[in-house]
Amino acid sequence: MSKQYVVGNESVRMIELGHPWIIADAYTKKWPAGEAGDLVELVDGSGRFLASALLDPRDRIVARILSRQRMRLDRGWVQARLERAVALRKNHAQLDDSDAYRLVNGEGDGLPGLTVDRYGDYLMVQVYCSGWRRHLKLVTQALEELLAPAGIYEKGRPQNTRELEAESDTKKYGRLLAGKPAPEPLLVRENGLTYRVSLELGLNTGLFLDMRKHRRDLMARVQGKRFLNLFSYTGAFSVAAAAAGASLVTSVDASPGYMAQAKENFALNRLNPKRHEFLVGDCFTVLDDLARQKKVYDVILMDPPSFSTTAKSRFTTRGGTSDLVAAALRLLKAGGLLISSSNHQKVDLADYLKELRRGALQGGDQLQVVSFGGQPEDFPYPVSFPEGRYLKYVIAVKG
After folding, report:
1. Cα of 63 vs its chain's centroid, Å
2. CA 81 – CA 75 distance, rounded (Å)
3. pLDDT at residue 169, as a whole number
4. Burial environment of residue 9 by CB neighbours within 10 A (0 to 12, 13 to 18, 19 or more)
5. Phi then psi dihedrals of residue 279, to 5 deg
6. Which of 332, 263, 268, 266 is nearest to 295 (CA)?
7. Cβ pair 168, 203 in contact under 8 A
8. Which of 25, 103, 155, 360 is the most exposed place for a label (fewest CB within 10 A)?
9. Closest CA to 388 of 360, 348, 335
10. Cα separations in angstroms, 171 against 148, 152, 168
11. Roughly how many angstroms between the first and final C-alpha of the chain, as a whole number?
């Protein structure tokens, strides 16, 4: 039988509202000693059973709720959750011309703290709760049985990702859990286009899967247009724009390594990189240079990381967004589209729109929002878990 752990009134209320996290507090400090990965029963002060949870005693989220019933964390239970996740993608996501997408979205698929992404014939598991470490073999066996992938990788999530981001691209963060090694780089398809990813090297794989739907949307908007992609990373949006017939694609990123990968992605799709521009540098500095050259664009996309540092400047979503909007609007023609995106979980839509408003006022411009989106269908979140709704993607017309 699982050990019983008493939670306070606030946690009782959150469990009853369907929230999957127990945050460390005065009650959890009194919990009996346990190890990460223990399956425990959460009870209220009178001993009433509330939920079965996975323990992670050294984390701020000390337990993650797996079920409101008593349960065993075994192959059958994991398999059932995975089957449900696979069915959701099959029934609700448009994946006919994509083989790179999220298969399990943690809390959104009833497996809190665990994600599984598909990249072609391979799967990539990421653990955001060390409670899953002990059960990783169970998860990989269930995935093998259900999906028969060529191989399953795990990519570690180091604590200080912000500092590591810049220099991590040649470092191995991925390890093979099962099956055979993937080619390096591995080629995957998204919206009918080909992209290179790495399952071993770097903190990220080279393709942010939660933008698939927005890249498809962009393709319908850029034919014959001049497109500027700020914080272009490995150029996935740039490739989508060029493939859809944009007359000029200008990609800007501070990393020469990412820019080299962007050019490779162009070549993989038989797009001539020489017909487009690839500018390595700090986005603010490059925007100043382009403004001096009197460059004008029809569509500008800015999808900055929620935090980044270059030699010249430091960018954070709170505060940085308005300056970026003001700088970008100088290069956008009247009636052009400003597309801005943020994956910063702690900035909600209302605050984000205030940043956009501040930037527009700074530049003396009008912005009319014509479209707002979030993550695609393969990144579901429970209605009882607002933290799961992190992506904000705003398309606005410059008045």
Report:
1. 23
2. 10
3. 60
4. exposed
5. -110, 120
6. 332
7. yes
8. 25
9. 348
10. 28, 19, 5
11. 64
- 89: Cα within 13 Å, side-chain hemisphere: 22
Task: Encode pLDDT of 313-361 as tens digits.
Answer: 444 545 589 999 999 999 999 999 999 999 988 888 999 999 999 999 9
Burial-class residue 287 by CB neighbours within 10 Å (0-12, 13-18, 19+): buried
pLDDT of residue 307: 52
Is residue 265 within 8 A of residue 196, CB to CB? The reply is yes
By C-alpha distance, which of 283, 232, 297 is closest to 260?
232
Phi, psi dihedral angles at 285 (to 5 degrees): -65, -45
